[in-house]
Automatic annotation (TrEMBL):
Residue ranges, compositional bias (Basic and acidic residues): 228-239
Region described as Disordered: spans on this chain: 212-251
Segments forming domain DUF559: 292-356
Origin superkingdom: Bacteria
Taxonomic lineage from the root: Bacteria, Bacillati, Actinomycetota, Actinomycetes, Micromonosporales
Organism of origin: Phytohabitans suffuscus
Name of this protein: DUF559 domain-containing protein
Amino acid sequence: MLGAMVPFSLSELPTDRVVWIKCFHSDDLDRAVADAPPDAPAVIVRRTALTGSPSATVDSILDEMEGLAGQLFPVWLPGAEGIATAAGAALTAVRAIAFAQAADTAQYGNFLADLAAGALAGRGPCTRRHPPEVRASGLAQVLASSFGRPVCALLLQPPNDLDEPGALALVQAAQWLVDHGRLAVWIHAESLPSIDWLPEFTVARPVRDASVSVSGSEPFQAGAAEPIGERPRPRRESSAGKPRRLSVVGKPHPTSRAEVAFEAVLADRPWAAGRAWNHTVRPGPLVNPVRVDLLWKRERCIVEIDGDDHRTAGKYAEDRRRDVMLQLNGYAVLRFTNTQVLDDIENVLALLQQFLANRRRAGKGT
């Protein structure tokens, strides 16, 4: 078994083989994704149930990947943005767009057309007629492109009571996905009974500086690492098939209803010009870049749209550290909840418009 201590960057993990990640907790995964460089994979987290066989596990994972692709439609199919329903000739049109895209890429046209038609119609898995190899490769490409990433990585989280037959079936399914789907598979588990041939990576958390710091801003220091495994914590449940919050630079996050709705309203407001979604900000010369939801660069104004997960104690503390560091470097941070954006949008718009007007009058960023 190979052992390694890897930097706190997802781009450092292998994407051409199955690897075993130990001592890696959900909080730290969130932080690693927030810091992920553009060449890092799109990470799909799946709580893996025991299915009894490698083939059944593969089929279950592919169905969930297809469901996620349906949620992300039409991000991965440029040209289909204006097709909102499956009525009339819409299905024919979306299939034609899919075939045209496949002709310019390495995708298989019939598969992509079936996937697009099923996503538009809101139906369940519609690509099962295709061989698993075609589904695996096609879905991996679709999910990676949805987040503007070069590859897709599955982070599989098996149950803690995994036995030897279950561990072997899981690893065999993971190896099949790597070989046929051209995607990375990372298994996050404290133990894999009788599995002693996988490359093993232990991720270390950088030690925090005593001064104020930004969430996710500390660089990895090999000589000052605190092994996560020394302080075990309960692992947070993750929804099966739910992608970690990787975003398409310059666009609202495709699975965030609040961000998509907010952008739709801002697009009609001339005063909202100059905004940039999901860009990185470097708070200071000695601080790593931080990904923010919405930025007005000239006005040095940042808007964060928070879901329910930001109410947890750990996330709340991380948000405060980010805000303080950004404020110390001249940025204003306005935070709104998803509920405010979706249910009280006019008040949010009024507050934001007033703040931007004040900044522009004061000449901030000029």
